[in-house]
Amino acid sequence: xxxxxxxxxxxxxxxxxxxxxxxxxxxxxxxxxxxxxxxxxxxxxxxxxxxxxxxxxxxxxxxxxxxxxxxxxxxxxxxxxxxxxxxxxxxxxxxxxxxxxxxxxxxxxxxxxxxxxxxxxxxxxxxxxxxxxxxxxxxxxxxxxxxxxxxxxxxxxxxxxxxxxxxxxxxxxxxxxxxxxxxxxxxxxxxxxxxxxxxxxxxxxxxxxxxxxxxxxxxxxxxxxxxxxxxxxxxxxxxxxxxxxxxxxxxxxxxxxxxxxxxxxxxxxxxxxxxxxxxxxxxxxxxxxxxxxxxxxxxxxxxxxxxxxxx
Length: 311
Fold this sequence. Notes:
Blueprint: E1 2-3, E2 12-14, H1 21-51, H2 58-75, H3 78-86, E3 91-92, H4 94-127, H5 132-135, H6 138-164, E4 167-168, E5 172-173, H7 180-185, H8 192-227, H9 230-258, H10 267-291, H11 294-304
């Protein structure tokens, strides 16, 4: 028996996908491809936003933060996963597990708050267009971005600290990284009080933001319907459609994974769901935003065309 605290210095064994050895090579190839696309796509958004004045707006300011988050988020998981899939080393040290758990929770929580901020930005753009530049002042944008990061890391500190007080039996984690639901499965004493506190923290960081985002989009829909303008409808759809897709992907997977009762959590299903939100979603985010966004496509055409502005 070991405890998940500083008194135990043993390693964890990450089972990963060793139960399906025939999948490991295929997964390794596809994950490497997706990770490369994630790095390229999110880095491209950040670089483009800095190069062209048209993209130096509140929307792209927050999008840069989202891209940076996705870069860090997926990088905290994928290198360890690729090593695991090679079968050379399926262990992770106590310190590595703690760091991975903390970083993953911090970055995911920050993204959860940032998506609310982006919804507020879209609400201001659609519902208060005449006052948009006044409302979304650069100082407010910076403050909201900082609040997202601080809120995300505070949530991670709370949940990681509670997790580290729980006694764990065994060293084998049926997953490819140190994810909280899998660690909770190893709890070997009555930890109902601690788990309840952690569940409340997860509800706050997932359900509360979703509620605020849905509220923002209800107001946006009402404003569009009142205008009875086809042009306004198209503008709202173009402005908000990408964000709604990202919100659906992120919170759908998060709620499925983190708001299930511990007893009903399936580790095997959880691994494949985790592949989706740690690898697929960060890769899709740049595509979702750029394919639906004429400003980003215009800047890309300008740069690839040797400086000629797109029509």
